[in-house]
């Protein structure tokens, strides 16, 4: 060798690269925690799913509880909330149609106050 020292390796598998990627990963975790919109409390450790958010959002809207609707809207992304509300509406219309013995189309139009097609 012509005066070059071999690269120093630390005692971890992967040498210095492991240490670098470990620091990058830790920084990413720190950033991810900073971006969280919801704070976790002891009584509420699991995250809300989109169906819980949609059910709470729709129920709060029906009860004119804007604070609760805003809270539920913050649990998931707007796209996920939209999907959940759509899924809830579909299931509700199907359930009402079965209960009434009518088509889902008839029930949906009736719920919205539209004339029969």
| Main structural class | mainly alpha
Number of helices: 5
Mean residue pLDDT? 80
DSSP E strands, number: 0
Quote the beta fraction.
under 5%
Order of helices and strands: HHHHH
- Helix share of residues? 55-70%
| Quaternary organisation | single chain
Low-pLDDT residue spans: none
Main sheet makeup: none
> What general form does the structure show?
elongated
Radius of gyration (CA) equals 26 Å
- Kindly, what is the distance between the CA atoms of the first and last residues, rounded to a whole number of angstroms? 88 Å
List keywords for this structure.
117 residues; mainly alpha
Give a concise summary:
The protein is an all-alpha fold and 117 residues long.
Characterization of this structure:
This protein has 117 residues and is mostly helical. It has a domain at 48-111. Helix content is 62%, strand content 0%. It has five helices and no strands. Helix 2 (50-62) runs antiparallel to helix 3 (66-73), helix 2 packs across helix 4 (78-100) and helix 4 (78-100) packs across helix 5 (104-111). The longest helix has 23 residues, at 78-100. The protein is elongated and about 90 Å long.
